[in-house]
Design a protein that fits this description.
By secondary structure, the protein is of the alpha/beta class. Helix content is 36%, strand content 17%. The chain has helices at residues 16-32, 46-55, 81-89, 100-114, 128-134, 147-152, 171-184, 198-210, 226-237, 272-283, and strands at 5-8, 36-39, 57-60, 71-74, 93-96, 118-122, 141-144, 161-165, 216-220, 242-245, 261-266, 289-292. The chain has a five-stranded parallel sheet with strand order 10-9-11-1-12, sandwiched between helices. It has a four-stranded parallel sheet with strand order 3-2-4-5. The chain binds iron/sulfur cluster.
Length: 321
């Protein structure tokens, strides 16, 4: 038995926040010339980072690596208040590519902190988005990664307690942890709308629909990409073997032995060009049909920050997609 059909999850790949962040770097290079410094990987995807490096982006982790007078872009994951202040104090010209949906969480944290709230943040330790959100405050924000952490956490007070989450979590895991928070702190304030973003939700819903219909799921995404990892885990939880690949070159022919229908999706930071390459490789294993699953059409687009207008349309650089 060989692969005969590929099912493509819909939606998959780039979200509006990733698309905007990449365009900010591309436009900054076109407008101000290379090098443009970017704090952290602009989005967690190897292909995107390498392509932008070739165009003149320099990725750094510490602002001390950036020369005076340089132009600096903050990644889509957002930064702490301390990083924002350091960039200001060092006099860099800054373009903020933080996803507006992450900024929304920062604004909420600042607003409620002013009103005396303490926070429980559901997220993954060490992820730059979590560092950025927790770094909106100097104290009073406690990270929980799982239900056990919820039992251990010790806020200084419980009358004014709010919960916030990383935007790219497993929807189901986050709901379970949030339920544990509610059980322990019944008065906890929860966001009106989930912090988990529309793109994470939609890509997970698409995998839920696709997984039972296929023998194997391939997720295109880099190992550092939170939402890509969640897609692979979700497919496996639903009982379908799943692998995540950074590029077509990582596909292994033995994964496809005895599989007739393969499901394919991509994390929010993975470009469609990589999906197309994976399709070609799977076709070489015998797949003759490619079918796109029904799914939500995403029309969200976020505006660019001011100061990146190019003199004419012809100057607009080719966009990674
Ligand atoms: S995954 Fe969600 S939060 Fe992250 S950049 Fe995309 S839209 Fe924004």
């Amino acid at each position: 038995m060989a692969v005969n059909e590929i099912l493509l999850a819909e939606p998959r790949g780039f979200c509006a926040g990733v698309d905007r962040a990449i365009e900010i770097v591309e436009r900054a290079i076109a407008k101000f010339g290379a090098p443009i410094y970017v704090r952290h990987e602009i989005v967690h995807n190897t292909y995107v980072v390498e392509t932008l490096k070739a165009k003149g982006a320099v990725f750094i982790e510490e602002l001390s690596e950036v020369p005076p007078g340089a132009t600096l872009v903050f990644s889509a994951h957002g930064v702490s208040k301390a990083v924002e202040k350091e960039a200001h104090d060092r006099g860099f010209s800054v373009f903020d590519a933080t996803c507006p949906l992450v900024t929304k969480v920062h604004v909420e944290v600042a607003k409620l902190a002013k009103a005396g709230y303490e926070f429980i943040m559901i997220g993954h330790k060490g992820h730059p988005e979590v560092e950025g959100t927790m770094g909106q405050l100097s104290s009073g924000i406690h990270l929980v990664e799982d239900v056990e952490d919820v039992h251990r956490v010790q806020p200084a007070q419980t009358e004014k307690l709010a919960v916030v989450t990383q935007t790219t979590l497993s929807v189901d895991d986050a709901a379970e942890i949030a339920a544990a928070v509610r059980a322990r702190f019944p008065a906890v304030r929860e966001p009106k709308q989930q912090d988990i973003c529309y793109a994470t939700q939609n890509r997970q819903d698409a995998v839920k629909l696709m997984s039972p219909q296929v023998d194997l799921v391939i997720v295109v995404g880099s190992p550092t990409s939170s939402n890509s990892n969640r897609l692979r885990e979700l497919a496996e939880r639903l009982g379908t073997p799943a692998y995540m690949v950074d590029s077509a070159a990582e596909l292994r022919s033995e994964w496809f032995t005895g599989k007739t229908r393969v499901g394919l999706t991509a994390g929010a930071s993975a470009p469609e060009v990589l999906v197309r390459e994976v399709i070609e490789r799977i076709k070489a294993l015998g797949a003759v049909a490619v079918r796109t699953m029904p799914g939500i059409e995403e029309t969200i687009k976020f505006p660019l920050p001011k100061g990146l207008k190019l003199p004419d349309a012809a100057a607009t650089p080719p966009h990674i997609s």
